[in-house]
Design goal:
With 205 residues, this protein is of the alpha+beta class. The chain has two domains: 115 residues, no CATH class; 65 residues. 16% of the residues lie in helices and 23% in strands. The strands form two sheets. Strands 4-5-6-7 form a four-stranded antiparallel β-sheet. The termini are far apart. This is Oidioi.mRNA.OKI2018_I69.PAR.g11236.t1.cds. It comes from Oikopleura dioica.
Length: 205
């Protein structure tokens, strides 16, 4: 236990802190410290942000705060943590995006960061491999109403996945939950309801 706290304390001590004991943020930078990689289980939190396989975290808690976390690893997942999460992006995409998460560790996997931080990319990385309607969406895009359109899974929910469809013009798009059955789209909700790139309802609302 003492060794674990020493390691966590050493990680917390390698950054510059303000008068309140928090890591300083550089003004005007979307990635405050220009991090290139993160820490394993930052602040002892083993969860990663939902829909963000490319994200990495850096603990933003002081050595004293880390020492006050529960010693049980499972209990730490229910504790409040403070972590800088970064989504790496290219210059063409606007550069890296970092947000300071201050909530319970376990909520990272339940609520997308984009809900609290609109600037957080949704998704951060490719989540198509776990989404539930990939084959159905591929079949849907072959229909005339979607000629030239592309789709991206942006939220892998417990029962249904949410997709973003972008028309061939590159500017017209809509998002919504999609329900599939036997690899075919059966229902589209949200902005996708009655939406199509051909300007006609998709009849799946």
């Amino acid at each position: 236990m003492k060794l674990a706290l020493f390691v966590l304390g050493a990680v917390a001590a390698q950054y510059e802190y303000d008068d309140f004991g928090y890591k300083k943020k550089k003004n005007g930078a979307s990635n405050p410290f220009h991090w290139k990689n993160g820490e394993t289980d930052p602040c002892g939190c083993t969860n990663t942000p939902r829909n963000s396989p490319d994200a990495f975290g850096v603990c933003n808690m002081t050595a004293t705060e880390l020492a006050n976390l529960p010693s049980n690893k499972q209990k730490v997942q229910r504790a409040h943590v403070r972590i800088w999460w970064t989504c790496p992006r290219t210059a063409e995409q606007g550069g890296d995006v970092s947000v300071l998460y201050t909530d319970r560790c376990k909520r990272l996997k339940k609520r997308p960061l984009s809900t609290t931080f609109p600037e957080w990319p949704s998704p951060c990385g490719d989540i198509s491999g776990s989404c539930k309607c990939q084959n159905g969406m591929t079949t849907l895009m072959s229909e005339a109403a979607w000629a030239g359109a592309s789709f991206e899974c942006i939220d892998d929910g417990r029962k249904h996945s949410t997709y973003r469809i972008t028309c061939a013009d590159g500017t017209t798009s809509a998002e919504g939950r999609v329900k599939c059955k036997n690899n075919f789209v059966r229902r589209m909700n949200g902005d996708l309801r009655n939406f199509s790139c051909a300007g006609r309802g998709n009849k799946r609302g």
